[in-house]
Amino acid sequence: MLNTTIAELHGRRLVLMDSISLIKAEDEGTIIISASHGGRISAGFAAKGRPAFVLFNDAGGGKSDAGRAAIALLDEVGIACACVDHRTARIGDARDHYHEGRLSALNSHAGRAGIAPGDTVRDAVERFAVFAASDHAPE
Question: How far apart are alpha carbons 24 and 88 in whole angstroms?
Answer without folding.
Answer: 27
